[in-house]
Each structure stands twice: as C-alpha cells, then as structure tokens.
Write a structure and sequence with these properties.
Length: 495
C-alpha cells in the first residue's frame, strides 16, 4: 500500500461498507469511493487523454468530490495539482502557466476565475466516467505537486512522490493512536495545503472517516465536532484562536473528542493553554513543511507541560533532524541555528526550478529556513523563520518569542512582531497588535508588560494597533506584507 490509489483499493477490500467520508449530510463508503474514483480515472484516460505524468489541477474548496478526484488522478498516473482558491485570477494564471496542467477542474464559484487562464476547464459534474481502474499509479512517481504560498516571491511547485506521502501516514499513526478504523476525523484545513490534503490522506489510510468541512467557519466546526462525534482532527493555531473566541464555547461539551492535532505555524503559550481548557482533550503538536511532506516531529500530550510546552516535539519514526550553524556545523543543545532534515519525506524537488532545489538540498539534507534549537533530550524548538529574524544592535531577536509574550496579555487578541529601520540600532522591534473587543490597552502598557519577561533588546520599542493581522491560509503571518510600509523606498530589507 504505497500509492495514494492503493489506499482506497485496499481499504475497500478490507471493510467496503465503512464510511470513508462525510460531507454535508452525504456519507460515502470505501467501496463506493473506490468504484467511483476508478470510473473517474478511466474517463480521464480514455475520454480526456490524460497520460502518465500529466498534471491535473483542482481549484475548489473542500468536498468529498475533491477527495474522489485526488484518488482518481493517481489511478490515472497523473499528478494532482491543488490550487489555492484564495488566489486572484492573475495569481491562478501564474500557477497554471508554471504547472501547464492538461486539465483544470473547478468548483462553480471559481469558474469565471479559471476560464481566464487559457487552459481546458471542467466542472466536477462534467468529468467523464468510463470503464474501470487504469491502475497507472507507481510508488516512485510524483503524485502531488503543491505550490508554496509565494510569500517570498515566485511560487514553487513542490513535487511529492507516492513514497514521500507514505513517510507521513505511517509515523503519524504511531503518534496519534486516536486515528483508527471507524473513528471520525475532522478534515477542515484546505485541501490545497499539505496540512489539509496530507492529513486527509492520513485519515483515509487509517480507515477513519473524513468529516469534511468545506471551509473554516468556527461555529460550524464546533457543531461538527459534536454532531459527527469527531475523535480527532488537525487545525492550525489561527483556527484554535477563532474557535476559542466563539461566545459560549467554554460551556460546550465535546464528549467524543480525544485528541486535537495542531501545527503549521507557531502558537502562543496563552492560546495553547486556553485551547486545552476549552476542549479538555489531548493535544498533539506537529511540525513540518510542504518540502518534508508535512509532519516530521510530534509533541504528544504527555509533554505539554513546563518549558516543553513551547517545543514542537521530537522527530517521528524514520525522521532525522539537526541544528546547524552557518558553515553546516552541528550546534550544541540550546544554541539557535538552522533546522535541517533528512528522511523519506524529502521532496523530489521544485518543479522546473533546479537552482532553487539545489539551494535547499545538500547531501540529502533539506535546509528548512527555520531557526531553532534542540534540547539535551532531542526536543525541537522552532524560534522563527531565519528570514524573519530581527538584528537589533547586533543581537538576534526572534519575533515568535516576542509574540508569545505579547499574546499572553489579556487585552491582546492577535499580534505580530517585525523589524523596522532604526538609525541607532539598525533595526528596532515593532509590535502590530489587535486589541480584544472592549479593551483599550495602550502602547505604553504593552511595552511595560514585556519588562521582566523579555531582555531589553527583545522588547518592542513601538506598537501599532490594527483591525486584523494578515495571514496566509495555513495561518502563517504575512510578515513581508506587514514590513512593506516601513521599508518602502529602501533597496534592502535589512538595515
């Protein structure tokens, strides 16, 4: 069982009548999903001429039809290219121009946007079905091509082989025992993101039922957790923030919820504690990148205490992690450097970008671009993105650490920390803050709050208040967008 297609075939033989998915009142069994995805794959091959290695792109929100198409594309031997539905028509066009898909499958609400990009477009209901399973899937073939968010420039297509994908599903089952046959698992993160589609594959691989949410609507997700008797699910910290802010959530009961998995961006300690108090279940943090095929570390609930509350855990089975200095040397425990990874999840490379691939892959090790450290027991602590690091007066400041302190203030709903030009220090620490409704915390009060909690060079020198913090779909703060007004007119983004 080492291809995406073989997952649904094997599960259909093992328990054909068990539900593989639930979506808006519609339940589909493994047998139904296997048969329908085979017919769809047959149509892609015989009617639309899809050849092995062709790209088939998808532009839509989450649904069981989306999941069916993911299986069908692999059965046809093609490459699944999910596209971020939040992109503008121009941005969709850039991805399509780069990927050159044979076909773009769209949800109806995105058809106008899709038909401007100059490629063959079809709605889900228009796809032909013909014959049976072509069985063109191969474990060494690229199965998915996921585009990075493009926050640092040109979007890159991350090529993931079928074998890469099974580096995710196997180890994850060790760390999340609640993910098992017949249990309900929430699939709410967008399927164009590794945290959505990768988690969805892990759910189906385990024999659980994917309880699919079309998009993140906090009140709807809370209702699904209760009504669909969800045992586990994956969410990003921003979603935990939204869920814990729903009026009355602290009084709700989630009797079947046993473990919430979270990751994809740093989490503030205050938010994590509030989430644990709200849902009263186990929590597991995971860390990974699209380029690592998703999760490579896990912090189980037993370690959610003390200083390790801010760790993202230890490498999962088969994964290796080091922290290195600028010359590639291993750094001692506690010293911050770049996190590098080696294991079966290392991507096949960036699509048609050999120079970009070579820049991050060295002798089998993937350089993540994340700044972090290890403790004496091998627990990993991510401090920030290296590119987001602030250098103030010769000292390195990692914004995530400062954000964690600010987020603990009772009047702070959300926050981000960036470096801005400063004639004396080179860069100064600036906080961007969203106040909680009904509060009027001031700049002076927030700066005072950090005294005694942060070293002087780490404390914000100024605070700006905004209505919302811009984030990408995975919950990561768009630091480049926040920095832009302060660095406008300068050739470099360092000072």
């Amino acid at each position: 069982m080492r291809t995406v297609a073989e997952v649904v075939r094997w599960r259909a033989r093992r328990h054909p009548h068990l539900p593989v998915s639930w979506y808006r009142g519609r339940s589909r069994s493994f047998a139904e999903m296997d048969a329908s995805s085979s017919a769809l794959a047959g149509g892609l091959v015989s009617k639309l001429g899809v050849e092995p290695g062709d790209r088939v792109a998808i532009l839509d929100k989450n649904s069981d039809d989306y999941l069916e198409l993911v299986f069908a594309i692999d059965k046809a031997g093609a490459v699944c290219v999910p596209i971020n539905w939040r992109l503008t028509a121009e941005e969709v066009g850039q991805v399509v121009e780069d990927a050159e898909p044979k076909l773009l499958v769209v949800g109806e609400e995105f058809r106008d946007r899709a038909e401007r990009v100059g490629v063959r477009v079809a709605g889900f209901s228009e796809l032909p079905r013909q014959g049976g399973d072509p069985r063109r899937d191969r474990e060494e073939a690229v199965a998915w091509m996921l585009y990075t968010s493009g926050t640092t420039g040109r979007p890159k297509g991350v090529m993931l082989r079928n074998l890469n994908l099974f580096s995710l599903t196997g180890p994850l089952s060790f760390e999340v025992p609640e993910l098992g046959e017949g249990t309900g698992a929430l699939v709410a993160m967008p399927l164009y993101h590794i945290g959505g589609i990768g988690w969805g594959l892990a759910v189906v691989s385990s024999g659980a039922t994917a309880v699919i949410a079309r998009e993140v609507v906090p009140e709807d997700l809370l209702r699904l957790l209760v009504e669909r008797r969800v045992a586990t699910g994956f969410v990003v910290p921003a979603v935990l923030l939204f869920l814990t802010q729903v009026p009355g959530v602290q009084d709700m009961e989630f009797p079947d919820l046993r473990n919430l998995i979270y990751g994809a961006s740093p989490i503030a300690e205050d938010l994590l504690r509030r989430s644990i108090e709200t849902f009263r279940c186990r929590f597991t943090q995971v860390y990974g990148l699209t380029e690592t095929t998703g999760a490579i570390t896990a912090l189980t609930h037993e370690h959610h205490r003390g200083p390790r509350l801010l760790s993202c855990g230890r490498p999962m089975f088969g994964q290796e992690i080091r922290v290195v200095g600028p010359r590639g040397e291993d750094l001692p425990a506690g010293e911050v450097g770049e996190v590098v990874y080696r294991g079966p999840g290392v991507m096949a490379g960036y699509w048609r970008q050999p120079e970009e691939t070579a820049a991050v892959l060295h002798e089998g090790w993937l350089h993540t671009g994340d700044a972090g450290c290890l403790d004496a027991d091998g627990f990993v602590y991510i401090r920030d993105r290296i590119k987001d690091m602030i250098v103030s007066g010769g000292e390195n400041v990692y914004p995530a650490e400062v954000e964690g302190v600010l987020a603990a203030h009772p009047a702070v709903a959300d926050c981000a920390v960036i470096g801005v030009p400063d004639e004396r220090w080179g860069e100064a620490v600036k906080a961007i803050v969203v106040r909680r409704p009904g509060t009027g915390v001031t700049e002076e009060e927030l700066i005072a709050w950090t005294r005694g909690r942060l070293a002087g060079f780490k404390r914000p020198r100024s605070v700006d208040f905004v209505e919302s913090i811009p984030r990408n779909p995975s919950g990561k703060i768009l630091k480049r967008e926040l920095r832009q007004p302060y660095w406008a007119g300068r050739e470099r983004r360092v000072n």
